[in-house]
Amino acid sequence: MTEGRAAEKRGCGVDRFGFVSMMRRALEGIGILGVRLGLKAIRADLSKDLKEIEVLALADWHWADPQSDHDRIRADIEYIASHDNAFCLLNGDLLNCAIRSAVSDCYAEITPMQELRACAELFEPIAEKILCVVPGNHEARHYRTNGLDITELMCRQLGIEGRYSPTTALLFLRFGETSGDTHRRPVAYTVYVSHGSGGGRKEGGKIQRLVDLSLIVDADVYVCGHTHLPALLKDGFARPCMANSSITYGTRLYVNTSSKLEYSGGYGETMGLKVPCLDTPVIHLSGTRKEMRATI
After folding, report:
1. Of 23, 144, 255, 279, which one is least surrounded by beta carbons within 10 A?
2. Cα(89)–Cα(214) distance, integer angstroms
3. 128-182 pLDDT, tens per residue?
């Protein structure tokens, strides 16, 4: 039986890019396939002494790709390590995972094991500052071909497997002390993290994929990757309160992450894509009141 016929018999078609496998895991995650109920929730309680934190959204390094800018990557890691109020989210495609059946050039790169070891060594000094981790479609290549979750292996090596989700993650983040609160309660934020998929070549389509995350779950901040376009925006919303028949108004922050792939001579140039901006988006969260913004 051919691979395509075998896949069709399983009811999922030809899973060329691993998206069916990842979608199945996502459906299992929310209980549609009867495995468990609920998005993966990850809790991070930080120090009450923090007045503000910076969260670097790291994604799409494609470390083993010859065009990956290792100097920029190391600069981000060093910044996080040297600033007490700096933390990070890992949002997929940090590893390139070039295999023979993939688009990437497996003959121009280091082995998957060497790539895994290199990234684990990079993150080791800041392991306790990693708030949550999700994989991307490149890491899904290994899961598709041999059932190996290479991102989970890296998290286990770093001792942070509790902060890992194989699909998407809803991060519950608490730190600082609310100004004027006699109970000294911390300021709380929710951050929905998804590597994303699709989006097309145009900026409008990429931004629409980012904003569409708000159709999945209610959160303060939404972080998406995959499209290699660093972008920031905010919108407003109204939320009804049944307890006292009132309406509250708020804002949501959307962050699209950048890549670390240089242009010249690489995949982007070959495919006729636009020259990318490699600057890392940084989310700024107040620890004294509910206030959020981002910079690139």
Report:
1. 279
2. 18
3. 999 999 999 888 887 777 888 999 999 999 999 999 999 999 999 999 999 988 8
Q: What is the CATH number of domain 39-295?
A: 3.60.21
Which residues make up the CATH 3.60.21 domain(s) of the chain? Answer: 39-295
Ramachandran area for residue 24 (φ above 0: left; ψ -120 to 50: alpha; else beta): alpha
CB-CB contact of 174 with 188 (8 Å): yes
Q: Smallest Cα–Cα separation from 152: which of 138, 135, 136, 168?
A: 135
Nearest to 150 by CA among 169, 135, 165: 135
What string of DSSP letters covers 128-179?
A: GGEEEEE--TTTHHHHHHH---HHHHHHHHHT-GGGB-SS-EEEEEEES--T
Residue 47, number of CB atoms within 10 A of its CB: 12
Cα 152 from Cα 106, distance rounded (Å):
22
Secondary structure class of 19 (helix, strand, coil): helix
Residue 1 pLDDT > 50, yes or no?
no
Residues found in the chain: 296
Give the H/E segment covering residue 123: helix 112-123
129, 173 in Cβ contact below 8 A?
no
Phi, psi values for residue 106, rounded to 5°: -70, -15
| Residue 36 and residue 233 in contact, taking contact as beta carbons nearer than 8 Å | no
Determine the Cα–Cα distance for residues 293 and 284; give it in Å rounded to an integer: 5
Amino acid letter for position 149: D
